[in-house]
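Lab channel / #folding
Pinned by the channel admin:
"Please post every new chain as: sequence first, then the structure tokens as a reply. Keep commentary short and put observations after the output so the thread stays searchable."

First post following the new format, from NK:
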Amino acid sequence: LIVCLLIAIIGLAYAAKIMKEVYAADTGTAAMQEIALAIREGANAYLRRQFRVVGFAPPVMAAPRRLLGAC
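Reply from TO:
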């Protein structure tokens, strides 16, 4: 248990170190920032769509089971 905790703490410390390096890095030129914004908007649209499907599908799939008393 102690070894697992130590490994977890080391992993968190390493993640914090890398996070500081990423935040300290240059954000790039205006063109790079514009491309990054477009990528971010596309990724957010994709995730919204995925969450909508994931939030909608399980209740729809579970409804017949509940109606038929299988669950």
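NK: Residues 26 and 33 are 11 Å apart (CA to CA).
TO: also worth noting, The helical segments are 2-24, 30-67.
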